[in-house]
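Async update (no meeting this week)

Hi team, since we skipped the sync, here's where things stand on the single-chain job. The sequence we agreed to prioritize is pasted below, unchanged from the tracker. I ran it this morning and attached the output directly underneath so nobody has to dig for it. Comments welcome in thread, and please keep replies under the output.
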Amino acid sequence: MNVLLIGGSGSFIDNIIIKLKKEGHRISLLTGSRYTGTSYQKVFERYNFTYDYTCMSDIFESAEPDLTIYMGAFDTNYRWREEDTNAVKYAAGLMSILMSYASRGRGRFVYLSSDEVFSSSYAEDIQEAEPMTPVGVRSMVLAQAEEMCSNYRKSQDLDMITLRLDHFYGIPKKRSEVREICSAMCLEAFEKKRVTVSPGRSFSLLYETDAVEFLCRLAVGGKHQEQLYHISSPDVMTQQDLGEIIRDAAQEILEATVEVVEDRPVEDRRVLSGALYESEFGNPFFCQARKIVVDILTRMKKHPDQFLSDRSEELSLWQRIYKKAGWLLKALIPYVENVVCFIPFFMLNNRAVGSAYFAKLDFYLLYVLLFAIVHGQQQATFSALLAVAGYCFRQMYTRSGFELLLDSNTYIWTAQLFILGLTVGYMRDQIRQLKRESQEEQEYLTMQLEDIQDINGSNVRVKNALETQIVNQNDSVGKIYSITSALNQYSPEEVLFYAAEMLGKLMKTRDVAIYTVSNAAYARLFSSTSEKSKMLGNSIRYTELGEMYDTLMKRKVYINRQLDERYPLMANAIFEQDDLQLILMVWGIPWESMTLGQANYMVVISSLIQNAVLGASRYLASLEEKRYLEGTRVLERGAFTGLVKAFLTARRKGLTQCTLLRTEIREDQARQKSGLVSSKLRQSDYTGILEDGVLYVLLANTSTSDADYVLRRFAEIGIPCRIVETVEEGGNDAA
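Output:
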């Protein structure tokens, strides 16, 4: 299954990646950020794009996800320090993701929400049908996101699921990751040696690995009945209980006295009901709060600098003033520069008044044009005002202010100054705006080109990887079929022996056993590839194999997740219609290969082996009348010779044990004594005639030492026999 994970970094998403990879799924990751410095678990393909990326649909087309998981409330790309800004970004990002997902029209989409959509106190556990009561920007955004997903699902008939995680918590790696109640209380105990609790507050803590198990069980499963599920743990506790757990653990780990301080009582009980989920998928809850509290405090003690050293220091008075007034100082710098430059131009203008060479030169006009060209229209206006003030001040050396106001040249010169200054400043601003727009467009197109190149490179890598997998991978269907189809070249008697050898080759193990079912309760070992694979014995009562039997009868692959030494690590059954025919057992496989993907792999192999085995069985059944002496279970010469050679060849290759016994009964006496001989044999043993015309007995899965018991039983009924090693040996002795 192709899975697309969408969200930021952190241990939660890393655990999801590990779980899905272990199950054999191909993971692609959309990080939601263009920065590549964050570390992630290794995935098949990673896309470093923001959610507002214009070609988001191209990412979905490239990844082709059968399952999309959006971290939602647990997306670390949103820090929620500036709530209004993050609310807009969050809604826009989710809309972009949903539109890209809906454009494909297939695959499952899972959105992760949290218990924050509820704010009231509830006497009973909160059911999925309970109306949301959000309070605050973040909780309202999460509630709106759930509604958005629901509307998309209803309007476009999509397979979308919303999961609300109840009081989710994990082990933080640094102080900035302390966001939920458990780690916050642990940090308070570590830092201040006290824990503040509010009597009357109750909740249910959900550890992140349990949340991963809940999520993956639902997300990669088959059909589901509802579109909204609550994920919660069965352990409901009060904040007082949690405080006492933290106090006891802190006193043991930190070796310090930690005090539990009661805050004002608050009636606040918010516990999500997981009954709906459990009724469909079961309850995989494993972790207890005390164990995780110990791990959190242990990490804080081991890495105190990560939790204590990054506290913001108190700023001094001047630093706070600078921080508050910094924007004002930056805005005043151009005006200060303007005033400073005005002084030399004012002095030059005064000197030029009485000069024969510079009297016609207008320094104020040059000053205004200079600032209009460099800084634009705003500074040109300010410099023009300064120039007018300087001109009036100089004219009042020889004239009164009233005369200056009546002089038309003053207004003409002022108008000329402002017109030229504002016109040049406006043109400067327009040129700057055009350059900025051109640069932004160039940067945008360059970014688009880089993104297209990245996606194209990703598609090429995916294509090459898939081509390599299809052509060369050992687990490809083509390779499996090419290997298992080789069973067709063996005779019907040999198929089961080499099926065990072939299963071991495909499963990459040396320990494989095949049991044939002889009746409704017992199975007999037919072929094995090692001593370890025989540890259940030559004959087993398979109905007493407990969980393994129950799983096989449901036609599922049994996986020994508890590593019980009494059972194989993996087993599968082969049925003909409703009758159990064979049990395939695999022992020596590594723990990391015991995955759902490997189980599906074994199902494919078993199906291909089944075709060859059942085909051989039907072939033998069709020739049954020609294979046996009339009225007996004694095989005729040709059929028995081929069977004996197949067993002896398999014994030589270490695939089975068998013993061949030669009696003194001639072929003409075989019909009369076949019943007496068969009464002393097991159902899995064979009798038949070889080329020398004498009755032989083939003891399946019997060593030479074990055959002594059979020899004694035959001697008691007056049928002497002896052990022979080869078919030729029996024939030569008879001759």
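Quick observations from my side:
The longest strand covers residues 658-666.
Residues 310-314 have pLDDT under 50 and may be disordered.
Reply here if anything looks off.
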